[in-house]
Amino acid sequence: MHLELDDPKLECKSCHETVDTARAAGRPSTEKCLSCHSGKTDSAELKKLEIFAEKKTEIPWERIWRLPQDVTFSHRQHVSVAQMECQTCHGDFKSLERPAPRPLKTLSMTECMACHERWRWPADTPEVVASRPIAADCNACHR
């Protein structure tokens, strides 16, 4: 996403700031978006951002990735601990020039379980953590 900025330092964490520390990746605030986009173009999208900023309201982001209600998922666990790339679950969004209108990849329990079964701890993981197997029982994800 946001390839028009052509910034190699721009990554998922640049906007989704809690992806390393919380269950949810977080959505960028209006202020965060304007910190990069303000004054770059004279587009309709920038005008929308400026209106949200003027009214001191947040962007009403439309949620497109949803898991069933009985499924619990922690971004921190998958991104920080397991060191997974966002594209593994979300698809090739880096090729997009604007936010996706729908999921680029559909997740299924079969796909999640296959990943859990083949996954191995990164080599630099402390031995205490690495000695624990990755959770593959129902209660790990379904609560």
Q: How far apart are the first and last residues' alpha carbons, in Å?
A: 33 Å
* Structural class label: mainly alpha
Number of helical segments?
8
List the secondary-structure elements in sequence, H or E.
HHHHHHHH
Q: What is the percentage of strand-forming residues?
A: under 5%
Task: Give helix % range.
Answer: 25-40%
Question: How many strand units?
Answer: 0
How many strands, which pairing sense, and closed or not: the largest β-sheet? none
Which whole number gives the mean pLDDT?
Answer: 82
**Total domain modules:** 1
Please compute the radius of gyration using only Cα atoms.
18 Å
> What's the shape?
elongated
Which segments are poorly predicted (pLDDT under 50) over 5 or more consecutive residues? none
Explained architecture:
The chain has one domain (3-141). The radius of gyration is 18 Å and the shape is elongated. The protein is built from eight helices and no strands. The protein is mostly helical and 143 residues long. It has helices at residues 12-15, 30-37, 44-54, 75-81, 87-90, 109-118, 127-130, 138-141. The model has no long low-confidence stretch (mean pLDDT 82).
